[in-house]
Amino acid sequence: MKDSNSSPYNFQSVFQNLERSASRFFEGFTDSFLGEAETLRDGSELHPVELPRDLFAHRNAQTEWWYYTGHAKTTGGERFSYELVFFKRRTDLDKFSFFPVRLFGNPIYFAHFAITEIDNEKFRYSHLKSANGSFDLPALMSEKNYHLRIGDWSVRESLGIHILRASIGNDLVFEASLKPLKRILLNGRD
After folding, report:
1. DSSP character for 107?
2. How far apart are CA 70 and CA 33, in angstroms?
3. What 8-state DSSP symbol labels residue 27?
4. Beta carbons of 151 and 166 less than 8 angstroms apart
5. Could you read off the pLDDT of 152-184 as tens digits, one per residue?
6. Confidence (pLDDT) at 60
7. Radius of gyration of the chain measured on its C-alpha atoms
8. Residues of the chain with confidence (pLDDT) below 50
9. Which residue from 15, 46, 89, 100 lies 20 to 30 Å from 21 (Cα-Cα)?
10. Distances from the Cα of 52 to the Cαs of 58, 135, 174, in angstroms?
11. Buried b (16+ CB within 10 A) or exposed e, 118-151
12. For position 92, what pLDDT does the model report?
C-alpha cells in the first residue's frame, strides 16, 4: 500500500502552493496599489515612556488604545458605571488568510462604549469603527496633542482635564470631565 503523503496528488501540498501563490499575488497587487507595507519599527518603541507625549497617537505603533472606566453619580443621584475605549490598529503587517488587511484600511479605528445604570439594573453598549473611507465615520487620533475621535465620540485633554463624550442612539449622551487626583506613576518606577 502506498503512503498517501508520497502521492503526486497530495492535496495539502497543492493547497499550500495555491495559498502561497495567492498571497504573493495579493501582496504584489497591494504594494502596486498602495505602496509597500511599513515595518512599523522606527526605534521609538525602545524609548522610555514620556508624558504627555505618549498620550498622543504614534504613527508607527501597530496597536494603541486609550481606556477609561469608572463609577459615578448623576446630579440626580443615580449611580452608574462606564467604559470608553479607543483603538488604533496599523494593518501594514496584517493578513486575513492570504489577503492583506491594509486594502480595507490603514489604520483602522475602533471605539467601544458601555454604561451600566446600577439602580435601574440596565446595561447598554455600542461600538464604532472607521477606516476613514468615503462611507465611514470620520476618525482622528492626533500625533500632536491628546485628541481622539470617531464620529461624535471623543476624548481630549485640555488644561489637565480629560473630556470624554460618547452616545448610544439618540437618547443617551455621556459627557464627563475628569481631573486626575493622583500623580502619574509609571510601571517599574517608584
Report:
1. S
2. 44
3. H
4. no
5. 999 999 998 999 999 999 999 999 999 988 887
6. 83
7. 23
8. none
9. 89
10. 12, 33, 25
11. eeeeeeeeeebebbeeeebbebebeeeebbbbbe
12. 81
- Residue-wise pLDDT tens digits, 49-67: 888 778 899 888 888 999 9
Q: Which residues of 63-86 are buried (b: 16+ CB within 10 A; e: fewer)?
A: ebebebeeeeeeeeeeebebebbb
Element (H, E) at 47: none
Predicted pLDDT at 31: 61
Q: Is the dihedral of CA 132, 138, 144, 147 positive or negative?
A: negative
Grid cell in block for residue 85: 475605549
Burial of 88 (0-12, 13-18, 19+ CB in 10 A): buried
Q: Which residue has the cell 493547497?
A: 15
DSSP for 53-101, written as a single string: GGGS--TT-SEEEEEEEEEEE-TT--EEEEEEEEEEE--TT-EETTEEG
pLDDT at 51: 80
Q: How far apart are CA 88 and CA 179, in angstroms?
A: 24
- The CA distance from 28 to 31, in Å, is 5
The grid cell for 137 is 465615520
Separation CA 153–CA 173 (nearest Å): 10
- Four-residue CA torsion sign, 20, 26, 29, 31: negative
